[in-house]
Amino acid sequence: MDEGHKERERNRTQWALRERVKELTCLYGIAQVSDKTDLSMEGAAQRVVDLLPPAWQYPEATAGRITLDGTAFCSAGFSEGPQRQSADIKVDGRTRGAVEVFYTERKPEADEGPFLKEERSLIDEVAHQVGLMMERRQAEAEKSRLQSQLVRADRLATIGQLAAGVAHELNEPLGAILGYAQLQLKSFGLPDHTGHDLEKIVKASLHAREIVRKLLLFARQAPSQKSRINLEATLKEVLYLLESPCKKAHVQIVLRLSKGLPEIEGDPGQLQQVILNLGINAVQSMPSGGTLRFIAEPEGNDVLLAVEDTGVGMTQDVLTQIFDPFFTTKDVGQGTGLGLSVVHGIVTAHGGSIHAQSQPGRGSRFEVRLPVAGEPAHA
Prior knowledge:
Layout: H1 3-35, H2 41-51, E1 62-68, E2 71-74, E3 83-91, E4 94-103, H3 117-185, H4 192-218, E5 227-229, H5 231-248, E6 251-257, E7 264-266, H6 268-284, E8 290-299, E9 302-309, H7 316-319, H8 339-349, E10 353-358, E11 364-371
Parallel strand pairs: 6-8
Antiparallel strand pairs: 1-2, 1-4, 3-4, 5-7, 8-9, 9-11, 10-11
Helix pairs in contact: 1-2, 1-3, 2-3, 3-4, 4-8, 5-6, 6-8
C-alpha cells in the first residue's frame, strides 16, 4: 500500500472520528438540557436546536428547526435550504412535532441524500430525547396538579368540618333570637320605631340562618330527599326562574339537550339550587349582556351538565379558589362567597364532580358530572 493511500485512509479515519465526536457532543449537550428540570419546554427546545448545526457534516451550511405543537424553534440565522432531513417527535405514541435539519446550499450525495447514515441515527435520537423531555415535563405538571388538588381537597374537608361545627353552634342562639323577636312583634302597643327595629332583627336572623343552612349544605350534613330526576324537566323549571334576570341583563339563554337523557338520582331541590347558582353567577359575569348556554348530554356512566357564559372570565388564581367558602370577587354586600362552595358540596354529596374552565375576557365553563341512576328495584 503506497503512502498516498495510507494518508487518505488516515485522513478519512480522522474525519470519521471528528464526525462522531461532534455527534456525541450534541447528545451530551441534550442530556445536560434534559437534566435542567427548572427549564421550560420552550427554553429546552431552543437550547437543543442550537446544538444541531455543529453536529452535522457541514455546520457552516446547516440550519436546525424544532416544531412542538405548532410552535417553531430555530437555530441562529435560520433559513430553509434545498436539502432536508427530519424525524417526528412522538409523545405517548402521538406525533407532537418534528426535528428538521436543512442544508442551506446543495451538498454532494452521501447515504441519505447529502446526509450520513450516522446523521439519520442522530436526528432520530434527538427527536426521541425531545419527546422524552415533553413526557417528563407533562408528568411533572400532572403530578403538581394532583398535589394541588389533594391539598385543596384536604383544605375543603377541614373547612367543611369546621363549618358544620360552627353551624350547629349558631343554630340554637339564632333560633332563640328569631323566636323572641317574632314574639315581641306580636305584642300590642309597641312604638313604631321599636317594631321597625324588631323587623330588622328578624330579617337579619333569617339571613344568618340561611348562611348556616348553606354552611351545612357545604359540609354535606343537611338531610336530603333523593329520588329519580328527569334532568331535562329540572333544567326547564330553573330556566323559567332565570328568564327575568336574564332579560334585565340582556342575556340570551341557549338550551342544548341530547335526546333521551338518562335519569339521575338526587335531591331535586338541591340540584335545582346547583343549576340556579351556576346560572345566576353566569348572568352576573356578563354586565354588558351575552349568551348563557346550558348543555346536557350522556357521558359514559354519567350525565354531563355544562353551563357556559360569554362573560368577563376569571384568572387562574381566582379559578383555584372559587369553590372555597367565603371566597368572592363580588363587592361587599353583593354575595357571601358561599354559592359555589355550596354547589361543590351538593355535587360531591351526589357522587358527582364539578370542574371550571375560564380565561379573562373569554367567559367561563362549569362542567357538572352526575352518575346515571341505577335500575329501579323490582318488588
